[in-house]
Automatic annotation (TrEMBL):
Transmembrane segments: none annotated. PANTHER family: PROTEIN JAG, RNA-BINDING PROTEIN KHPB. Residues 100-165 form the R3H domain. This is SpoIIIJ-associated protein. It comes from the Bacteria. Residues 146-165 are annotated as: Disordered. SUPFAM superfamilies: R3H domain. Pfam families: R3H. One of its GO terms (molecular function) is RNA binding.
C-alpha cells in the first residue's frame, strides 16, 4: 500500500518521463534518426532511454565522444521538462545503452578500488570523472563496505576511496 506522497511523487516522475519522451521524439524526427523511447522510474528520478536496433549506428551520434553529446541532450531534456512543469528535473537519459554499459564499467572500477584499499590500507585516488560517474563509483564503494569522497574542482573532480576507519 502506498501513501499519497509516494503516489504523487511517482505520478510527477511519470509526467517528467512523458514530457521528456515527447521532447526526444521531436528531436529524433528533426534529426531523421530512428529510435524507440523507453520510460521508467528508477528510485527518485525519471529515466528515459532511446534505443535502436543493433544495426543502427546513428544513435551513437547522439552519444558523442565519451558521452559528451548525451550529457548535453540530458540537460536540454531537463530544461524542456522544467519549462513544462516549473520544477527542476533530475531525469536520467540513456542512449543506445551507453550509460548502462558505463555504469557496469564504473561499478567494477569502484569494486576494484575498494579491494585495493582493503589490501593496502591506503587511500586510492581515481581519475577525474563526471558527476554521474562519481555517483556510480561512490555507490559501488559503499556496497563494498568502504567510504569515499570527492575532491577537486570540476572538471578535475575525482573520487578518493578511503580505508575503513
Amino acid at each position: 500500500m502506498t501513501d499519497g506522497n509516494t503516489t504523487d511523487a511517482l505520478t510527477r516522475l511519470e509526467q517528467e518521463g512523458e514530457i521528456a519522451a515527447d521532447y526526444l521524439e521531436g528531436l529524433l524526427d528533426i534529426a531523421d534518426l530512428d529510435g524507440d523511447i523507453d520510460m521508467d522510474v528508477e528510485g527518485d528520478r525519471a529515466s528515459v532511454s532511446i534505443v535502436g536496433d543493433s544495426s543502427s549506428r546513428d544513435l551513437n551520434k547522439l552519444v558523442g565522444r565519451d558521452g559528451e553529446v548525451l550529457e548535453a541532450l540530458q540537460e536540454l531534456t531537463r530544461l524542456a521538462v522544467h519549462r513544462e512543469t516549473g520544477d527542476r528535473s533530475r531525469l536520467m537519459l540513456d542512449i543506445a545503452g551507453f550509460r548502462a554499459q558505463k555504469r557496469a564499467e564504473l561499478t567494477e572500477l569502484g569494486e576494484k578500488a575498494a579491494e585495493e584499499v582493503k589490501g593496502s590500507g591506503e587511500p586510492v585516488k581515481l581519475k577525474p570523472m563526471t558527476p554521474f560517474e562519481r555517483k556510480v563509483v561512490h555507490d559501488a564503494v559503499a556496497a563494498a563496505g568502504l567510504r569515499s569522497e570527492s575532491e577537486g574542482e570540476e572538471p578535475e573532480r575525482r573520487v578518493v576511496v578511503l580505508p575503513a576507519s
